[in-house]
Amino acid sequence: MIRFNDVVFDREMLWVRRDDGTEFRLSRQERALLLHISSQPGRLFTRGQLSDLLARDDEPAGERNVDFLVSRLRRRLGDDARHPRFIATQYGEGYVWIARPLEPAPGKVFLLIGPIFGLPRRPGREQRIVEQMTASFASALGDGRRVATALHSPPLRETPASASFVLQGSFYDDGAALHAAFVLHRGPDGQVVRTTRAVFADADTRAMAERVVADCRAAIWSDQAQTPEAPLVAVTELPLEVRMHEAALMLAMPPERWRESEAQLARARAERPNDPDLEVMWGIHLYLQLLRPPHEGRLMTRAERMELEAAIEAIALENLAAVQDNPLLVLAIAKLLLFIDRGHLGLVARLADEAFAKSSGFAAAFATQAQIRMYSGRIGEALRLLDSGVELSEPASEFQVYLLILKCIALMASGRRRALDRVSDQLYALRPEYRFHIGLMLADPALEPLPTDLETVLAAIDEESARNALDYLFYIAGRRFPAMRQRRNVMYGLTTHLSRRFGGRIIPAHIAQSIGGQV
User: Fold this and answer.
1) Which of 104, 184, 195, 449 is most open to solvent, judged by the fewest CB atoms within 10 Å of its CB?
2) H or E element, residue 301
3) What is the rounded distance in angstroms from the CA atom of residue 46 to the CA atom of residue 33?
4) CB–CB of 113/133 below 8 Å?
5) Rounded mean pLDDT, 177-182
6) What is the DSSP string of 37-103?
7) Which residues 6+ apart lie within 8 Å of 233 measured at CB?
8) Among 418, 431, 442, which residue's Cα sits nearest to residue 496?
9) Which domains does the chain have, with CATH numbers?
10) Do 214 and 137 form a contact (C-beta atoms < 8 A)?
11) Contact (Cβ atoms closer than 8 angstroms) between residue 287 and residue 255
């Protein structure tokens, strides 16, 4: 990767990430132009030269096309033609790349602070807190232990192992107080050393920042004092002490990944029977069986679902007391009880709030809290929480995709079609195959005919598959909304498209009754 000003570029110019959190992929022509001009900063390229470059790429050329591309790149990079930081215009001639690459300073780093998620676009309390912590660490660790910051660096797995320790953080402002969570990792192997929470309730942030620094210093000392024969956490044990975003993934892991780990989880349960942590994880595994979509196999019968729901309820309630000290597992139990919808909503809300107060995994907590509000009919609150979760989640991660799907469901329930179209486009950009699997569910009911790819999907569906798709959507999402209007909104797109093909008889009776009749 290479940094110019406040923007990080992939070395091949495939994607761009701005320090305000905006991330996007470059088109082929944008990439070709940027690779060419940024490799020779200070050199004037005429419009004709750049037009010839693009023409060689078998794309529409011409000097007007060059001007259009440059204008679009400036807009995406946050550049200003009057006061350029990246591309300067030589009027009547062409363009000059004026930004110089910012390479990291050489030398061994003892503590790397970053990335920090949830930073606002304009510097504020969050940046001031990080600056206070950086200065405090530098003073406490001494001259021989260098402290560096990379507030908007790539995810931890891409961070060079040149740092002895890495401190990753998240901020979330709920309007009443600024919440922060920090996770300290060993740099070489990424192992979690310490997680700590902080709440900044007033303008004086220094004392709380110093407390976080003291916690982390103690953890660094303890970790360095450990002998190889007595590691802090055994990598093979379950559950693992998870990293901030890996924790969120554990609570929203896609079914295929859980199926791959089923055998390992079963072996662990056999070796450690009645382990509450493993039992909760098994409950999540059962829950994901309920989420298995129709295209992956036979749809479960009502009796099979009820049997699994009963098993999940028993696991959740029997192990709740034993996992109270682990907020991530408490969140998992809240998630399970929320999904089975057996009258535990009050308990679920309390568990989610308590877990949020203790957990360093903000995004995971937001996902559960958002669903609580969504299935209580408070769609606006749910969307705000989901937006916060998306901001804190790793770009393009499985967890971010999961949050976007939840956001699509909330937008469907509220009937916000334009916003739904924007979010579904964002989802398909991350996972193009999802358009094939859930495109009909999210497609505008007013579209007739549908786009060609969705018409192809619709034509390939038989009546049994159509009923299964409707039953599945109603089970995982529609049934849990309290208002008939919201249930109807969730089901409206799919019922409309399938009814056009098969007639109103395709809608199962229990769904038609719940949404107030056929579409």
Assistant:
1) 449
2) none
3) 12
4) yes
5) 88
6) HHTSTT-EEEHHHHHHHHHTTTS---HHHHHHHHHHHHHHHT--SSS-SSEEEETTTEEEE---B-P
7) 191, 192, 240, 241
8) 442
9) 2-97 (1.10.10.10), 109-223 (3.40.50.10070), 251-360 (no CATH)
10) no
11) no
287-335 pLDDT, tens digit per residue, is: 878 887 776 556 788 899 999 999 999 999 999 999 888 887 888 899 8
CB < 8 Å & 24+ apart, contacts of 431-439: 431/401, 434/401, 437/293, 437/295, 438/405
Q: Using one digit for the tens of pLDDT, what is the confidence trace for 492-507?
A: 999 999 999 999 899 9
**Cα separation of 519 and 509, whole Å?**
12
Using the predicted structure, report yes or no on whether residue 444 has a pLDDT greater than 60: yes
Whole-number pLDDT of residue 232: 28
In this structure, how many other beta carbons lie within 10 angstroms of the beta carbon of residue 248?
Answer: 31
Q: What predicted TM-score, i.e. pTM, was given to this entire model?
A: 0.62
CB-based burial of residue 505 (10 Å sphere; 0-12 exposed, 13-18 middle, 19+ buried)?
exposed
What residue type is assigned to position 266 of the chain?
A
Look up residue 163 and give its amino acid.
Answer: A
Q: What CA–CA distance (Å, rounded) separates 185 from 195?
A: 9
Closest alpha carbon to 264 in 298, 297, 228, 239: 239
- The whole-angstrom separation of Cα 349 and Cα 55 is 59
Strands 147-149 and 109-117 come out as parallel
- For residue 510, CA distances in Å to 30, 302, 437, 513 come to 52, 12, 24, 5
